[in-house]
Amino acid sequence: MPVSALRLAVAINPHASFGRRADVGPRVVEALRAAGHTVFSLHEANIELLRLSVQESVLAGIDALVVVGGDGMVSLGTNVAAGTALPLAIVACGTGNDLARGLGIPTGNTAESVQYLLESLTRPPRAIDAARVCHGGLTTWFAGALSAGFDAVVNERANLMTRPKGASRYIFALLRELLTFRPIAYRVTVDGVTSEVRAMLISVANNVSIGGGMRIAPEAKIDDGFLDLFQVKPLSRLAFLRVFPKVFSGTHTGHPRVELRLCRSVRIEAEGVVAYADGERVGALPVQVDIAPGALLLYV
């Protein structure tokens, strides 16, 4: 066995991209074993069983965790590895792949993704920031972004949709929710300073994008020790529809109703609002979000 060989747990979501990329996991496992690594291939019927399998592998002793899928798998991996010395590696083959895009990890080509993984494992892992969310006595980690407004409502609807396939689900979900959505009254505490605000969107970003390429915080840096707080103040439906397409290019930031600011800590309170982090449901507000600089090790 080569000196550089690692003990790796490979957690696979066979339903990534609605099952269209089901070949990726087996190809990753095959390539890693051919490279001399010891590989524990993990795939279960649902995400909770997979999470348990991953935790058992960590307890048994592994050198790194490889997640194969989209941002949901990144969320699983982040919540296992953040705040520990366990490195994470990502093979992106999901619908959104937002964290992978932000890190420059290949997303569309299986052979390229496998080669990228093999090469990244020959280098020391990179430390990036992660965000710790405290909610209802629980703690959840994210590496990408947390949504707690219209964007979270859209995420919840999109996750329940089976059509259309791909990232366009978010656009259809957005247009549907826009018909009835009203600005939300929030209490937001930023680095200890509290204010009452009305907003359509509030997100706390560590990465650039959410929802498969919506560049909500185009200047966000994933290792600067800061969060990017993104808010969209109340707009008419027509004005919102004019602003929304600009999110994909990141040119929305000049709009007078769009606010971006750096911070290290955010508490968000509102009635009847559910937060999402890295595309996964966190729970009802309030949430407390704090940056943890360098808390996540990644092979990139």
TrEMBL record:
Alphabetical list of PROSITE patterns matching this protein: DAGK (PS50146)
EC number from the UniProt entry: 2.7.1.107
GO molecular function, one term: ATP-dependent diacylglycerol kinase activity
Cofactor: Mg(2+)
SMART domains xrefs: DAGKc (SM00046)
Keyword terms of this UniProt record: ATP-binding, Kinase, Lipid biosynthesis, Lipid metabolism, Nucleotide-binding, Phospholipid biosynthesis, Phospholipid metabolism, Transferase
Recorded GO CC terms: plasma membrane
Top enzyme category: transferase
Coiled coil: none
GO biological process: phospholipid biosynthetic process
DAGKc domain span: 3-137
UniProt similarity note: Belongs to the diacylglycerol/lipid kinase family.
Identification of the protein by name: Diacylglycerol kinase (ATP)
